[in-house]
Amino acid sequence: MGLFDKIVQTVKETGLADAIDKTVDKLQESGGFKDAAASAPAQATYGPGAAPPAAPQAPAEEEGGHTVAYFREVISGAFPQYQLLEGVSPAQLGGTGRPYDFALASGGAIVAVIPLSEHNRTNNMAWKNARAAAESAGVPFINFHLHMPNKRDFVVGRINRLLG
Fold this sequence. Notes:
By secondary structure, the chain is of the alpha+beta class.
């Protein structure tokens, strides 16, 4: 067994990997990764004759980097016949795992769950457990990666196909 294998094995055995995953998930849920830049103090002066920098623009649909607010607006606008729930616990489906960012409900019953993820955060146990909870409850599960383009038509089309 090589050094890298020993390190990976130690991380697994000590539960460090789960602790890191939980910490990252909490930061993602609270917006901690994105809020750090927004909370930086703005410069008060811009120099002689210099104009203040332009206000930051929302990313174009083609660029990725979308926020939960973007998906909320797209999903609620395209599916008004459903109630849009946020932060739904997999326990409501009889399982465990990370909360689903969104769920669509009809008549009080959850008909689809929609978690969002950053890059490759879909390979941890909390994510896998949440997916398994939806599958065992027979609730359609579809995820979107925040760093991908996710044009409105793409998001709406995937959810339409999911709902049949």
